[in-house]
């Protein structure tokens, strides 16, 4: 699977641009702020129905315009498929594949798998639990449609229950019977989702530990653990016992939306005890493992987006990444870099089809 071309219309800082890609390595070169990352994000939009950086669609429209479109042509198993994403301010976003519009955006997830490695990924380690849940949920959602549907349903009922708790607080009255249908759904869905997450981490962990050893040449013991109070046994009591706290805080305090994933090194929290180098190695191992589980689960190599990665890694880690590329372990690859000479030098020894693009203030120009 690969993306053959892309057309941008009023997306971020692009007025109207088009690019034709190599099926192997594509490198976007240009100064910071020129639009390199925006082009990566357009690819992410096509694959995942949303931006990797800004979840508010209206903020991804070119200034002083009212809509954007992103169109791309994919080759999937030898068949050309055109995909178009259309968003107009004040209207519902549309996604059209081979001339047919999706009724639900979630139906598209997993059709064109993608993995992105970006500077902001350090939030997986340094940020809150929401970042880590999103990381795991993005993988599971691409691999398991039932999981995605359960997650969407959970988020819907959670929003409704929280609105009801707020209504009780503001109205000075409590209706147990009105709340009960939401309790039942959230308890049931929490059990299902937590079990899926646990099974996934058990499969993911050995792959992650292997990649960490390869990248770091280190003897440190690393692990990814799952922290949840939603195990099937006893969770219903935990959830119901939290009612008084829920009413006081006007939100639901127990459920899979409170889960976290423990990133540890030698048995200690990576966030507190890991060096900068160890954290970088850990992060790359997470992403390479993400690529591997998606490839194994879907039978196709995901598109790999590397944003400004050469600036954030030392020479040893860059060498490890390049060796993986040289061994053709990845499929189609997109890289951004503010230093053209560096990218061309790093990629020169790799026997793959390469395409270089000069990005300049929202324009795209192919280079030799």
From TrEMBL:
Coiled-coil region(s): none
**Where is the RecF/RecN/SMC N-terminal domain positioned along the sequence?**
2-344
What GO cellular component is one of the record's annotations?
cytoplasm
According to its UniProt entry, one GO biological process term is: double-strand break repair
Nucleotide-binding as a keyword of this entry, yes or no, is yes
Is this entry keyworded Cell inner membrane? Answer: no
Q: Which Pfam families does the record match to this protein?
A: SMC_N
Alphabetically sorted, this entry's keywords are: ATP-binding, Cytoplasm, DNA damage, DNA repair, DNA replication, DNA-binding, Nucleotide-binding, SOS response
Question: Its Gene Ontology molecular function terms?
Answer: ATP binding; single-stranded DNA binding
Looking up PROSITE patterns in the UniProt record yields: RECF_1
InterPro entries per record: DNA-binding_RecF, DNA-binding_RecF_CS, P-loop_NTPase, RecF/RecN/SMC_N, RecF_2
Positions with a binding annotation for ATP: 30-37
Subcellular location(s) per record? Cytoplasm
Q: Which SUPFAM superfamilies match?
A: P-loop containing nucleoside triphosphate hydrolases (SSF52540)
The organism's superkingdom is given as Bacteria
The UniProt similarity line reads: Belongs to the RecF family.
UniProt xrefs under PANTHER family = DNA REPLICATION AND REPAIR PROTEIN RECF
Q: What does this protein do?
A: The RecF protein is involved in DNA metabolism; it is required for DNA replication and normal SOS inducibility. RecF binds preferentially to single-stranded, linear DNA. It also seems to bind ATP.
Protein name (record) = DNA replication and repair protein RecF
């Amino acid at each position: 699977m690969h993306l053959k071309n892309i057309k941008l219309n009023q997306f971020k800082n692009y007025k109207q641009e088009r690019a034709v890609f190599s099926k192997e390595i594509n490198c976007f070169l240009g100064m910071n702020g020129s639009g390199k990352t925006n082009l990566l994000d357009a690819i992410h939009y096509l694959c995942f129905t949303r931006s990797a950086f800004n979840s508010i669609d209206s903020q991804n429209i070119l200034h002083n315009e009212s809509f954007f479109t992103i169109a791309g042509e994919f080759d999937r198993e030898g068949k050309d498929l055109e995909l178009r994403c259309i968003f107009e301010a004040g209207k519902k976003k549309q996604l059209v594949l081979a001339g047919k519009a999706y009724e639900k955006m979630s139906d598209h997830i997993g059709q064109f798998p993608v993995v992105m490695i970006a500077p902001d990924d350090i939030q997986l380690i340094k940020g809150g639990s929401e970042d880590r849940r999103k990381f795991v949920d993005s993988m599971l959602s691409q691999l398991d449609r039932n999981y995605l549907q359960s997650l969407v349903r959970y988020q819907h009922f959670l929003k409704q229950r929280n609105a009801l708790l707020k209504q009780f607080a503001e109205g000075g009255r409590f209706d147990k019977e009105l709340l009960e249908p939401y309790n039942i759904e959230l308890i049931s869905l929490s059990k299902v989702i937590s079990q899926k997450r646990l099974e996934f981490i058990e499969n993911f962990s050995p792959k992650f530990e292997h990649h960490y050893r390869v990248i770091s040449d280190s003897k440190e013991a690393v692990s990814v653990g799952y922290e949840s109070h939603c195990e099937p046994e006893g969770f219903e009591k935990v959830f119901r016992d939290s009612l008084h706290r829920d009413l006081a805080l006007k939100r639901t305090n127990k459920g899979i939306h409170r889960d976290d994933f423990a990133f540890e090194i030698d048995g200690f929290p990576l966030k507190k005890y890991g060096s900068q180098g160890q954290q970088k190695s850990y992060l790359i191992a997470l992403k390479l493992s993400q690529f591997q589980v998606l490839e194994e689960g879907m039978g196709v190599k995901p598109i790999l987006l590397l944003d400004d990665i050469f600036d954030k890694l030392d020479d040893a880690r860059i060498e490890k990444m390049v060796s993986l590329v040289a061994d053709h372990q990845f499929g189609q690859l997109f890289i951004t870099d503010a230093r053209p000479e560096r990218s061309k030098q790093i990629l020169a020894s790799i026997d793959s089809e390469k395409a270089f693009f000069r990005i300049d203030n929202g324009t795209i120009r192919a280079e030799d």
